[in-house]
Design a protein that fits this description.
There is one protein chain. The chain is an alpha+beta fold. The longest helix has 13 residues. The strands form 4 sheets. It has a 7-stranded mixed sheet with strand order 1-2-3-6-11-12-13, with helices on both faces. A two-stranded antiparallel ribbon has the order 4-5. A hairpin with a 5-residue loop joins strand 11 and strand 12. The radius of gyration is 20 Å and the shape is globular.
């Protein structure tokens, strides 16, 4: 259950969230006769720079910015666009800031075999900043998927891509195998009855009050690469209804044993709580896309 001592007040209920336009399958023609856009074109609005080279940065004449970046910039947002998801990587935590995926009836069907997939290092991440399987060995934590493998049965490669350790975070085994698993199953059930379900998942590192009355952000790290163990996880669901209505559901669970018998609606939180805690912004996109929004709160009938 949610612990009372965590400082951020995740009140039950939901607010506004981001709407992302539907992604067309690569093997399907765009019904509008236009080039189909990928998930990368529909990311949440983020308070970080896009992944661009130093040469692409705007520099007014005489500003000195070109000179400042002559040896390159030490870091920008690290985006990864894969078969089954788009990810923003956090080299400090050795995991993702967020992962976004699209679920619908097509993505949930197929003959992909989870047994044919192995957890693997992400070679696109510098070796200083990536997790390895050895980091998890003996840690007491599961390798918890952010974009879930079972969400992408439509392609063996898509499923295999979810096993990159950049899409993984240390997760309490009881949570991973029970309540969190129930939430993932619930996402898939929603995809069967909606045109599209966009799922954005990520870690949270929340402050809490210690015995001295002061607030601290404390989290464990595992392995020689110091992979950060989140205190909580969030999952934001954006449902595109057949009617054209957009529905939003946003959840937070602690990274600790959670009774799987607790109804999932007990973990609904206002989207604003996730935005404040994660440094991400979802609201601007949905307001640009639609005014036909229904926010699901605890006690709402879905």
């Amino acid at each position: 259950m949610l612990r009372a001592r965590w400082a951020l007040p995740f009140a039950v209920g939901a607010g506004l969230g981001a709407a992302l336009a539907p992604r067309h399958r690569r093997d399907s023609p765009d019904p509008r006769g236009e080039a189909a856009e990928g998930l990368l074109a529909r990311l949440p609005v983020l308070p970080v720079l896009p992944a661009v080279s130093a040469a692409d940065l705007p520099a007014p004449p005489g500003s000195g910015r070109t000179e400042l970046s002559k040896y390159g910039l030490p870091g920008l947002a690290q985006l990864r666009s894969r078969e089954s998801y788009v990810l923003c990587y956090d080299p400090r935590s050795r995991s993702a800031l967020w992962v976004i995926e699209q679920l619908n009836r097509d993505t949930l069907s197929g003959a992909s075999d989870r047994a044919a997939c192995d957890f693997q290092e992400d070679d696109s991440v510098h070796e200083y900043h990536r997790a390895t399987n050895a980091d998890y060995r003996g840690s007491g934590f599961d390798r918890g998927h952010l974009a879930a493998a079972a969400n992408h049965k439509w392609s063996q490669k898509a499923m295999r891509d979810t096993f990159y350790l950049s899409n993984i975070a240390p997760q309490n085994p009881h949570l991973n195998q029970n309540a969190w698993n129930n939430l993932e199953k619930y996402c898939r059930s929603l995809a069967k009855h909606n045109r599209n379900v966009y799922v954005c998942t990520g870690p949270l590192f929340l402050p809490r009050t210690e015995a001295d009355g002061k607030m601290y952000v404390k989290y464990q790290v595992i392995g020689k690469n110091n992979v950060a163990v989140p205190t909580h996880f969030f999952k934001v669901l954006i449902l595109e209804k057949e009617s054209g209505e957009i529905e939003l559901r946003s959840y937070v669970m602690p990274n600790s044993p959670v009774d799987e018998k607790i109804p999932l609606e007990r973990f609904l939180v206002p989207i604003e709580s996730i935005e404040r805690a994660s440094g991400l912004l979802f609201v601007p996109n949905i307001l640009r896309r639609t005014s036909n929004l229904k926010a699901i709160t605890a006690g709402s009938r879905s």
